[in-house]
């Protein structure tokens, strides 16, 4: 099942993609927000899969971030062997975890910002996993039980802000810098998340071309690691790292400019496509 959050008629709610249409899950008596729908568990998801509410053509609705405000967005640095090579750094002995603020969540086709304060904007195509139930101390062998599904992410990165302090948080958390979607593909339709081609294009030029089999710490190992420290909750989004081919890996470096188009596609999970726009004046909020 492909779960979306969509807006139609000024109203935003969860839906199920069925071919070229979206089935409104709001009519099925299910929770009206994606994290709550996932938290409702297997019986609710079975009802979502069978629901037959109002239908809208996919190209007439706006697809939003599948989870509008994930409780947590976590990410991993240096987690593909080919990306580690391009950075010249050593392979981490433990996963290098950082977070993106949940306010960075952004729609799969919505433009993201070139910040006023940076000229070093970069893309990172990544496999994302979405947590389906509250969990702690999950051994890797049981991690499948807590993963609701998978999605396509761009871990948009502001390199100058990322590198100028000891933590990545500022450079990874600018508003609009976590586009993901276009939907959550439920885990039952992804038999092996570690055998998926991942590709990123900028203006039609292929920049990243890898496969999730090259992950250093795979999805299940990451769940075990993270839940050693804290509870994961329904709707938490975990970005699993990016392969080689990011803009900062080129010489000369190839950062993004306003007007660029970035597309990330993962085998079986669809694609997200976002234009880069100059940060508008309307972001000032005081
Ligand atoms: Zn990343």
Report on this structure.
The protein is an alpha+beta fold and 286 residues long. It folds into two domains: 62 residues, no CATH class; 211 residues, Fumarylacetoacetate hydrolase, domain 2. It is 15% helix and 34% strand. It has six helices and 19 strands. Strands 1, 2, 3, 4, 5, 6, 7, 8, 11, 12, 14 and 17 form a twelve-stranded mixed sheet that branches. The longest helix is centred in the last third of the chain and has 11 residues. It is globular, with a radius of gyration of 18 Å. The relative contact order is 0.20. The structure holds zinc ion. Zinc ion binds next to loops.
The helix/strand class is alpha+beta
Number of helical stretches of at least 4 residues: 6
Order of helices and strands: EEEHHEEEHEEEEEEEHHEEEHEEE
CATH class of the largest domain: Alpha Beta
The largest β sheet comes out as: 12 strands, mixed
Which percent bin holds the helix content?
Answer: 10-25%
Distance from N terminus to C terminus (CA atoms, Å) equals 41 Å
Strand content: 25-35%
Ligands (ions, cofactors included): zinc ion
How many β-strands, per DSSP? 19
Low-confidence regions = none
- Counted up, domains total 2
Average pLDDT taken over every residue: 96
CATH topology name of the largest domain? Fumarylacetoacetate hydrolase, domain 2
Quick tags:
single chain, 286 residues, alpha+beta, Fumarylacetoacetate hydrolase, domain 2, twelve-stranded mixed β-sheet, five-stranded mixed β-sheet, 6 helices, 15% helix, globular, binds zinc ion
């Amino acid at each position: 099942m492909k779960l979306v959050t969509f807006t139609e008629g000024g109203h935003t709610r969860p839906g199920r993609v069925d071919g070229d249409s979206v089935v409104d899950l709001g009519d099925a008596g299910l929770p009206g927000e994606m994290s709550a729908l996932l938290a409702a568990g297997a019986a609710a998801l079975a009802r979502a899969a069978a629901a037959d509410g109002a239908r809208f053509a996919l190209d007439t609705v706006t697809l939003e971030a599948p989870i509008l405000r994930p409780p947590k967005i976590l990410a991993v640095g240096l987690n593909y062997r080919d990306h580690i090579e391009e950075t010249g750094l050593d392979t981490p002995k433990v996963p290098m975890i950082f977070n993106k603020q949940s306010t960075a969540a952004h729609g799969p086709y919505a433009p993201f910002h070139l910040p006023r304060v940076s000229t070093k904007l970069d893309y990172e195509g990544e496999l994302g996993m979405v947590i389906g139930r509250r969990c702690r101390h999950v051994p890797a062998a049981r991690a499948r039980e807590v993963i609701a599904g998978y999605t396509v992410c761009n871990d948009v990165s502001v390199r100058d802000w990322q590198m100028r302090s000891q933590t990545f948080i500022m450079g990874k958390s600018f508003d609009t810098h976590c586009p993901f979607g276009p939907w959550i593909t439920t885990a039952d339709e992804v038999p092996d998340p570690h055998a998926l081609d991942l590709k990123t294009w900028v203006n039609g030029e292929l920049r990243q071309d890898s496969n999730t089999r090259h992950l250093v710490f795979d999805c299940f190992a990451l769940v075990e690691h993270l839940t050693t420290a804290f509870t994961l909750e329904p709707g938490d989004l975990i970005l699993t790292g990016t392969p080689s081919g990011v803009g900062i890996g080129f010489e000369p470096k190839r950062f993004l400019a306003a007007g660029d188009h970035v597309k990330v596609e993962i085998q079986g999970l669809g694609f997200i496509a976002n234009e880069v726009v100059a940060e508008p004046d309307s972001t000032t909020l005081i």
